[in-house]
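Bumping my old thread because nobody answered last time. Still need a sequence for this structure:
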């Protein structure tokens, strides 16, 4: 059975139970009302007859009494007077006999009311056939109407369930097409409103957009990696082939081996950065991290490099609590400091600081270098993309791409802006630890 039918049958079963309860209660309420009206009529007739007998002390003549009895027998309500011993003393005859019990009682098909009087008893009785007939008509109407209402509800419920679950079908069909073709470029039609299905379609489309971007990035990454690795491999093959063409002097062989070693070291460094970039896109481990510790560590790691280039590192480390993987964040911050040292002129100062903002923890690196042209700001965060000021400088164009991948895996972002005076302002913006915990608790709820 499909989910639509399970949902519809469950809805119909609940509706049937509600109809059964409502019908039973309404039937009982109507039965009580009808019998209450019948009983009130019997009480009123009996009391009226007793009051009339009390006003009239003398008995009517026999012939008048016979006429009155004949008329009385034709009425639906039968009045019968009994003496204290239970013998008929007037009107009548009773259809149910003497009932030695005051109040309302049911004798067969007769509803009986017994009123105790000073001289005996006054009995008022009437058949409940009309009440039973009315109740049967109501019951028959309910028994016939309830199944029709259930059938109608079943049909309407299936239509509503089909319309409500249409976005789920679209998501399922889209997932099947993506699984067959491997192209996550399609999107689910956005469900209107702000209900659960609308949030589902938005979430699925966001997931597909991220997946599409990730796959595109991986394809470009694989293509660029192959291109970058092809060059050193070609150099190694050319150098070794040239050395093997004819006998060489030891010095020439040594020169070839040095060339192969230098190229292989560059290739090893490139492969190491590619591995780091591939691992950086994984979700970060959530451990408490203070950006002040990271700031101090990267400053110490690159102090010798800065001293070699006669660059002064000015460090300001304030407590800035966040969460994530400590080593990955050290790698990201180290790339920013290394770039700042690489592109800053000798004798200048690079500022490295961290602070806790209102919504994020921030690590900032300021350098007095040439900055980045506006058209290159977005491009340089892609793998193997280098700026126009990098001619003659070593590197494969993976540093900023690695930094952005690490920061995004931590739920933050990388901000690159040119300083008005000169140079670049690079910022790692990461969620504050307290706001991140509140966000996790809200997601858990």
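Sorry it took so long. Here it is:
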């Amino acid at each position: 059975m499909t989910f639509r039918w399970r949902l519809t049958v469950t809805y119909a079963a609940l509706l049937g139970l509600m109809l059964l309860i409502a019908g039973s209660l309404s039937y009982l309420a109507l039965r009580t009302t009808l019998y209450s009206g019948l009983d009130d009529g019997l009480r009123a007739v009996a009391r009226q007859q007793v009051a009339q007998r009390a006003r009239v002390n003398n008995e009517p003549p026999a012939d008048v009494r016979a006429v009155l009895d004949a008329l009385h027998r034709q009425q639906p309500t039968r009045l019968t007077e009994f003496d204290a011993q239970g013998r008929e003393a007037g009107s009548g005859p009773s259809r149910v006999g003497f009932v030695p019990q005051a109040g309302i009682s049911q004798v067969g098909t007769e509803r009986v009311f017994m009123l105790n009087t000073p001289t005996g008893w006054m009995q008022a009785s009437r058949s409940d056939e009309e009440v039973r007939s009315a109740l049967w008509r109501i019951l028959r109407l309910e028994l016939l109407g309830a199944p029709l209402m259930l059938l109608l509800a079943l049909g309407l419920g299936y239509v509503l369930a089909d319309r409500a679950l249409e976005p789920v079908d679209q998501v399922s069909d889209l997932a099947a097409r993506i699984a067959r073709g491997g192209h996550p470029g399609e999107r689910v039609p956005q469900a209107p409103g702000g209900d659960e299905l609308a949030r589902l379609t938005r979430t699925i489309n966001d997931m597909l957009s991220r997946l599409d971007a990730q796959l595109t990035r991986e394809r470009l990454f694989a293509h660029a990696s192959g291109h970058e690795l092809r060059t050193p491999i070609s150099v190694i093959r050319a150098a070794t082939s040239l050395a093997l063409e004819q006998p060489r002097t030891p010095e020439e062989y040594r020169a070839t081996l040095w060339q192969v070693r230098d190229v292989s070291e560059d290739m090893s460094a490139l492969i190491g950065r590619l591995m780091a970039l591939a691992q950086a896109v994984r979700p970060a481990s959530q451990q408490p991290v203070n950006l002040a510790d990271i700031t101090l560590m990267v400053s110490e790691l690159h102090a010798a490099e800065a001293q070699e280039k006669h660059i002064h590192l000015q460090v300001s480390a304030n407590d800035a609590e966040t969460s994530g993987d400590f080593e990955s964040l050290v790698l990201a911050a180290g790339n920013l400091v290394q770039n700042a040292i690489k592109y800053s002129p000798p004798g200048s100062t690079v500022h490295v600081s961290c602070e806790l903002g209102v919504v994020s923890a921030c690590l900032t690196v300021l350098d007095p270098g040439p900055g980045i042209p506006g058209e290159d700001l977005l491009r340089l965060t892609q793998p193997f993309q280098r700026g126009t000021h990098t001619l003659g400088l070593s590197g494969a164009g993976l540093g900023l791409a690695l930094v952005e991948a690490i920061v995004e895996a931590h739920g933050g972002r990388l901000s690159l802006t040119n300083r008005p005076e000169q140079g670049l302002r690079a910022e790692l913006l990461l969620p504050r630890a307290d706001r991140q915990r509140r966000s996790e608790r809200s997601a858990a709820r």
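The longest strand covers residues 110-117. Let me know if any region looks off to you.
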